[in-house]
Specification:
The chain is mostly beta strands. 8% of the residues lie in helices and 51% in strands. The chain is built from two helices and 20 strands.
């Protein structure tokens, strides 16, 4: 009976860390995004040409004044607000933490995180129980944030699916949850050439980086402080992100 009770407790712990994710959404050319929402925060991954800026707006179907939008451009990752159609979105309070900015083979991968709600009235509040999300996007022709042109933008509705620690949609399985001394990472459907696992703190600091050549790896996390961490797997087949709690 005790074993069954313990198993149930572990299962409930895993379910408590449930996340919803869009998976990777292709928007235009090489530009794609993914969003992962947990009970506490949201992680955004933006992938595109290293020489073009990328923008994404949340909860709107056009550049509606007051809508929330982020961009990555030559000045970095920026929190912005729409002023209306035809007007360049203005900078507002920076609530996002840039976790990583990697360039390989002309392709840039940016990962950033934020609490579910921001500090400005224009900031969109993410819902971990949402089924879908309206987004607008733009992909500039240069790295400088400026008019994107009529053919480099669009709007769509993306669906969320449920995953536990991202394992269903991102092919990452973590154990145990939460972790104490070691964290086991299992990967599925991932090409392992030049693959690394990076762990970032909630403030965006890289706290552990390890090259791997097996689909199952064990990481020593005993020296990490208690808290929530982001796990990023970088492989030739793409970038996967999820999170774990260190107790």
């Amino acid at each position: 009976m005790k074993k069954i009770t313990l198993l149930a407790a572990l299962l409930l712990t895993c379910l408590a860390q449930a996340q919803i994710t869009t998976g990777n959404i292709s928007l235009s050319g090489s530009y794609s995004v993914s969003l992962e929402v947990s009970d506490t925060d949201v992680i955004i991954t933006m992938i595109g040409d290293e020489n073009r800026w990328m923008g994404l707006g949340f909860g709107v179907s056009s550049m509606t004044a007051g809508g929330d939008v982020v961009s990555f451009d030559s000045t970095g990752f920026n929190d912005r607000a729409f002023l209306g159609i035809g007007q360049s979105p203005q900078l507002d309070t920076q609530d996002w933490t840039l976790l990583s900015n990697d360039v390989s083979g002309g392709v840039r991968t940016v990962v950033a995180s934020r609490d579910l709600s921001g500090s400005d009235s224009t900031d969109f509040t993410f819902d971990p129980n949402a089924d879908s999300l309206d987004i607008v996007w733009a992909n500039g022709v240069t790295g400088n944030f400026q008019n994107h042109g009529s053919s480099n933008r669009g709007s769509t509705t993306v669906a969320f699916s449920l995953g536990i620690n991202g394992m269903e949609t991102q092919a990452i399985s973590l154990f145990p949850v939460p972790a104490n001394d070691v964290l086991s990472v299992s990967l599925q459907n991932v090409m392992l050439d030049n693959t690394t696992i990076d762990i970032y703190s909630a403030l965006g600091a890289l706290v552990l980086s390890q090259a791997i050549d097996h689909k199952s790896s064990v990481l020593d996390v005993s020296n990490l402080a208690k808290g929530i961490y982001v796990v990023k797997v970088t492989a030739s087949s793409g970038v996967l992100t999820t999170r774990f709690i260190k107790e």
